[in-house]
């Protein structure tokens, strides 16, 4: 994934103090649905790490989600945010069951959490495992995490002329947020250049229609690259309109390396890219900010299988590794990834989403055996 780039990126993101920490406090936020089944899997991996790494973990169980909203009236309790800010270096977030129709007073807790903790970058590696039948791909989708349509400023009103309802949403793109996301994307590309001898950054937008908002995103990304050409020498810089990007993502996934996109496009692209590697159940992400990193599997709450014990824990286990990478512990993260890759390559113990019949716990135990 991002193995050797982590220490440098941790320092750049303001997480250098965490890089040397051997005692880490990790918040556990299962959320809804299968989040309650996969987050314990991530905890189990951390609890069973080889003592040679010298890592010690304290865990704090925290609440957030739609069920929390139904129980307490708040989807993201103030206490959860307070503990994350004051006590935790990292966290694992499961999944949220968000209703498709408006529920008065409810909004997504993970979106709010990203804003309140300054988790400006969502890093989603999508990489096939050699020795499998998956399409060859090795990309990192870097998604701006705090603005775009996800600022959730919406209104519904009645058109005075037609008498019909109109719904409007505000799309916000700022220079400040775009500079930050372009910089971390280019830094990731720079490390991949050093590892692989080549790297390409693809800026995804729709500025041919949204000339001001996406136009600003495109302009600032290009400026960050052009203003630091000496630093980023050797990185190929491309742009791709989002609709053609979707087409090419599935036709030519091998063409993409590091992709940076505004919040909405990044969300859609990274979920879609999961189809290239078998399932959303295997794709991790990390929400990265200056003070804390939150690992988050890319899948949703999957209410249709919640409680059956067959949810795929791989995305959470990989997100746990990704969290550790950005907290400055790349060696243990690499070993976790290697164990996961071995599980996928062998293909004997896998959950139903990958065509198997194994349980969540059986997959966890298989990964732990390989990690040992």
Automatic annotation (TrEMBL):
Pfam families on file: Iso_dh
Keywords, comma-separated and alphabetical: Amino-acid biosynthesis, Lysine biosynthesis, Magnesium, Metal-binding, NAD, Oxidoreductase, Phosphoprotein
CC cofactor: Mg(2+)
The organism's place on the tree of life at top rank: Eukaryota
Pathway: Amino-acid biosynthesis; L-lysine biosynthesis via AAA pathway; L-alpha-aminoadipate from 2-oxoglutarate: step 4/5
Enzyme Commission number(s) of this protein: 1.1.1.87
Keyword Disulfide bond among UniProt keywords: no
UniProt GO BP: isocitrate metabolic process; lysine biosynthetic process; tricarboxylic acid cycle
Reactions this protein catalyses: (2R,3S)-homoisocitrate + NAD(+) = 2-oxoadipate + CO2 + NADH
GO molecular function: homoisocitrate dehydrogenase activity; isocitrate dehydrogenase (NAD+) activity; magnesium ion binding; NAD binding
Cellular component, GO, one term: mitochondrion
Domain Isopropylmalate dehydrogenase-like, chain residue ranges per copy: 25-367
InterPro entries xrefs: IsoCit/isopropylmalate_DH_CS, IsoPropMal-DH-like_dom
Similarity comment text for this entry: Belongs to the isocitrate and isopropylmalate dehydrogenases family.
Listed name of the protein: homoisocitrate dehydrogenase
Name of the gene encoding the protein in the UniProt record: LYS12
């Amino acid at each position: 994934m991002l193995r050797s780039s982590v220490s440098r990126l941790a320092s750049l993101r303001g997480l250098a103090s965490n890089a040397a920490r051997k005692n880490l406090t990790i918040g556990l936020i299962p959320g809804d649905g299968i989040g309650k089944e996969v987050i314990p899997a991530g905890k189990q991996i951390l609890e069973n790490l080889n003592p040679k790494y010298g890592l010690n973990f304290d865990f704090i169980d925290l609440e957030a989600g739609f069920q929390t909203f139904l129980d307490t009236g708040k989807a993201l309790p103030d206490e959860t945010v307070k503990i994350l800010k004051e006590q935790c270096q990292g966290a694992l977030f499961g999944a949220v069951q968000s209703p498709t129709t408006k529920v008065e007073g409810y909004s997504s807790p993970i979106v709010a959490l990203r804003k309140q903790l300054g988790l400006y970058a969502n890093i989603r590696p999508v990489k096939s495992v050699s020795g499998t039948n998956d399409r060859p791909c090795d990309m990192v989708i870097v998604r701006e995490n705090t603005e775009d349509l996800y600022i959730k400023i919406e209104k519904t009103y009645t058109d005075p002329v037609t008498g019909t309802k109109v719904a409007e949403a505000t799309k916000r793109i700022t220079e400040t947020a775009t500079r930050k996301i372009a910089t971390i994307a280019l830094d990731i590309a720079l490390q991949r250049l050093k590892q692989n001898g080549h790297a390409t950054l693809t800026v995804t937008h729709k500025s041919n229609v949204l000339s001001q908002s996406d136009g600003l995103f495109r302009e600032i990304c290009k400026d960050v690259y052009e203003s630091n050409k000496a630093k980023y020498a050797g990185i190929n810089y491309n742009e791709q309109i989002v609709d053609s990007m979707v087409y090419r993502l599935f036709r030519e996934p091998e063409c993409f390396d590091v992709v940076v996109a505004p919040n909405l496009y990044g969300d859609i692209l990274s979920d879609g890219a999961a189809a290239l590697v078998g399932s959303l159940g295997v794709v991790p992400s990390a929400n990265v900010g200056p003070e804390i990193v939150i690992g988050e599997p890319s899948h949703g709450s999957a209410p249709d299988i919640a409680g059956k014990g067959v949810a795929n824990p791989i995305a959470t286990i990989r997100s746990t590794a990704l969290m550790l990478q950005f907290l400055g512990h790349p060696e243990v993260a690499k070993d976790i990834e290697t164990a996961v890759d071995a599980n996928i390559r062998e293909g004997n113990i896998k959950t139903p989403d990958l065509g198997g019949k194994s349980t969540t716990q059986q997959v966890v135990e298989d990964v732990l055996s390989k990690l040992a």
